[in-house]
Amino acid sequence: MTSARSEGLLVAVYVREIAVGTSTSTEDKQAAAILRRYQPAVLENFSPRAVFGEGNCCYRAASLALYGDQKHHLHVRLLAAVEMLQFREHYDVSCRSYLGEPEMDSISGTYEQLVEAATTPSSSAGYAELMHIYANSAAFDVVISSVMPAIGVTSSPYTRTVFGRAVRRTASPAFTLMWSMAGSHDKSSNFVPQREDIRPEPHSISDDSDNGGGDVTATAHDVTADGDTSTATSTMNSYRRLTAQRTTTTGE
């Protein structure tokens, strides 16, 4: 836990600032088709936005909503990992002192699985669960609306308002994450309602390797002016340290 706290402090001190931009994303056709089939009224006010689907889509979706660009997904994932490592009692449903949502034990993986997923970017092992959305909510101090389109009359347990650790229960959702695979939860797309811009703390780690192809076009101010890759290097160094800590931390 001490190491995770130290990692969070390092991120706050050494990560370069980044401006919050205006999203230039396109609509996710698959997610829109799901909504059109099961909940067409939602499309009157919401538009699902496309993100890359290579194991980071939940974090890319949150990055798109928070910063206007999905390329900062490593920063979003890193803060979620630090949050889960530092505040285990909010994410380990088997812990005697568990302080998280009471019904999560039936839909959440083990703490070890959750931490492994959070600290494993860009792979099949790095998928996101609902508990990771709670970690993102806490890390950015925002309320998140999680939505899985209902098939039939039964609502999904993944459809809920997510209040992360210490987030005000009276706050309104900052953005919505849609689980775009109907009947499953292995891919998420983000869709944003008409709302005021969310301004999180202006620190981010950019993954400039995403700057090309795909459905989202990076805006100019999201790329470091001198082409410096130090922030991306800091990200991976943080992941290496967190991964090294993982076995010890989860085995406590």
Rough shape? globular
CATH architecture: Alpha-Beta Complex
Counted by DSSP, the helix tally is 7
Oligomeric state of the chains in view: single chain
How many distinct beta strands? 5
Poorly predicted tracts of residues: 182-188, 192-229
The chain-level structural class is alpha+beta
Q: What does this molecule look like?
A:
This protein has a single domain (2-250), classed as Cathepsin B, Chain A (Alpha-Beta Complex). Helix content is 35%, strand content 8%. It has seven helices and five strands, in the order ααβααααββββα. The chain has helices at residues 2-14, 29-38, 57-67, 73-86, 111-118, 130-140, 230-250, and strands spanning 48-49, 143-147, 160-162, 173-179, 188-191. A five-stranded mixed sheet has the order 1-5-4-2-3, with helices on both faces. Strand 4 (173-179) and strand 5 (188-191) form a beta hairpin. Helix 1 (2-14) runs antiparallel to helix 7 and helix 3 (57-67) crosses helix 4 (73-86). The longest helix has 21 residues, at 230-250. It is globular. Residues 182-188 and 192-229 have low confidence and may be disordered.
Short key terms for the protein model shown above:
252 residues; alpha+beta; Cathepsin B, Chain A; five-stranded mixed beta sheet; 7 helices; 5 strands; 35% helix; 8% strand; globular
Helix and strand topology:
Layout: H1 2-14, H2 29-38, E1 48-49, H3 57-67, H4 73-86, H5 111-118, H6 130-140, E2 143-147, E3 160-162, E4 173-179, E5 188-191, H7 230-250
Helix pairs in contact: 1-4, 1-7, 3-4, 4-6, 4-7, 5-7
